[in-house]
Amino acid sequence: MTHPTPSSAPHPTPAGPSRTTAAPALSARALTKTYGPTLALGGVGLDLFPGEAVAVMGASGSGKSTLLHCLAGVISPDSGSVVLDDPRHGRQDLSGLDAEERAAVRLRSFGFIFQQGLLLPDLTAVENVALPLLLGGTDRSAATARAAASMAALGLAGLEERRIGQLSGGQQQRVAIARAQVADPVVVFADEPTGALDSATSTEVMAALLASTRDRGRTLVVVTHDPGVAGTCDRVLHLSDGLVVREESLR
Ligand SMILES: Nc1ncnc2c1ncn2[C@@H]1O[C@H](COP(=O)(O)OP(=O)(O)OP(=O)(O)O)[C@@H](O)[C@H]1O
Question: Gene3D superfamilies, alphabetically (predicted)?
Fold first, then answer.
């Protein structure tokens, strides 16, 4: 007896949005956060999937940074949950962790990029990139080798020994990207990563950021005011007064 072979069986794609084939990398439910009388988050729920880039947009004060910080375990929400599914460490609700435990999760599972790269000026580029590995216990020569490979993947080969002040703004942001993904994080959070760059450099840096995260099956969350940056992502979440009021699917 023969068994028919289904001709349209689903095949998970190695990169690109995996909303239909994979479990979320990060799930938030009913997140609230107040600062005194100010409601910064009013009950946000969302799922972030492996291999997708999600932009978060909204007016100043709408809660974008607060959301990013709750998702990344920088702060604890007042209520609600943030569940991380890290293939190497399993599922974990970050909202129940204390500050030290959240710091450990951030180091092993997340990468961060800010508007100004927050690179250490007294270290060389390769030393900056190697930092998350050194803090995680990798020995110096292995960390330096991985950091150099990360830099090369971002077009920074030959600049390893430069101090941060000897690099252009775009090169500095690519060093920040290399540092954010050198430890292979599950989710990379970027807060206005191109905010300090001209538009041509911004396009270049955003392409490098997508290539080193989404295109490698990781999740990227980008807070941005720039519609051009948001337009390169797979989804855009629009925040207003601490709520996701609209979601756009771009791909
Ligand atoms: N540490 C804090 N103490 C008091 N209020 C805060 C604090 N952090 C944020 N807020 C308030 O919470 C609200 C949301 O702030 P948040 O920084 O998340 O907004 P945002 O959308 O990121 O703004 P922006 O685009 O200006 O960075 C704002 O009203 C802000 O003033």
Answer: P-loop containing nucleotide triphosphate hydrolases
